[in-house]
Model the fold of this input.
Amino acid sequence: MHARLYRSLYRIRRVEEEIARVYASDKIKSPVHLSIGQEAVSVGVCDALRPDDVVFGTYRGHAMYLAKGGDMAAMVAELYGKVGGCTRGKGGSMHLIDTECGVMGTSAVVGTTIANAAGYAYAMKVRRSDAVVASFFGDGATEEGVFAETLNFAVLKKLPVLFVCENNGFAIHTAQAKRQGLTDICARARAYGMPAERIDGNDVLTLRDRAEAAIERMRGGEGPQFIEATTYRWREHVGPGQDFHLGYREQADCDAAQARDAVRAIAEMLDPKERALIESAVELEVREAFQFAEASAFPTTDDLMTDIFTEEADALANR
Done:
C-alpha cells in the first residue's frame, strides 16, 4: 500500500511542479490553482474508493483528478487549451473530467459540485448500487447556502456521499476565523445528523483508514459521512508563485507545513530501490504528458458548437 500511495502522491507533486515551471512561458492558457501541499487529502480518500465510485471536486482539482486515476496527458493538454484535453481545451484547469475513472467534474463556482455529488448519490441509491460518491470542497464552500441545503437533503435521504472538506485555512486571502463565527466545521455537519471527523490531512495513512471506514458505513446503508481534513497550500491561491508579501499569511506557517510533507514521509517508508523505480516511471509519464500537450492541436472554430446541449445551439449549427 505504501508504494501505491507514494506513486499517487509523487505523481501529483511532480506534474504540478512542472506546471509551475512551464507557466511563465505562457504555453499554459488557463489559470491554475495548484494542490502542492494538499495532495494527501485526495490520495488518502481516493485510495479507499473502488473504480465504480465517483468523485466531484472544486477548481483546485488536479490532485483529486489524478488520485482517482485521471489521464495526466489529457489534464496537461487541457491546461494548454488543446483539443487533446479532457474537455477538448474548452474547460481549462478548473473544469476537469474523466468519467472512465469516475471523475465527474470540477467547477470554478464555489460549492456547486456539492449538490451535484448529492444528486449523483441519489441516482445511485435509486438504482440500488452500492457505489458511493466523494465530494471534495474547501472551507470557503461551507459558507455557501448549497452546503447547508445539500447536507440536510443527504441526511434525509441517507445518501451514500462522503463529504470531504479540504480545510487549508483560507478562502482566497481571508483566514477562516475572520469569515466564520463557528470555525468547527464538523460541528455544523453533525448538526444535520451525520457523523463527522476532523483529521490531519498530512497523515495520509490515518486519513485513508478513516475514509475507508466511512465508505464502508455508507455501503452498508448508514447514509452520508463527513471528513474535515486540515491541510495547507504551499503556493499562492491562483498561480505558481508565492504570495507572502500580501500579508495575509506567514512564511513560518508554510515552513511548518513543509516539515510535515506527506510526500517525503511516505517516501521514507519505502525501500530506496522501489522508490527509485516509482519516481523514474512517474518522471517519464510527466515528460510524455507535456510532450502530448505540446503536440496536440488547438480547437478549431468547428469545435465551438460541439458538446452543447441546447436545441437553439443545434439549430444555429445546422443553418
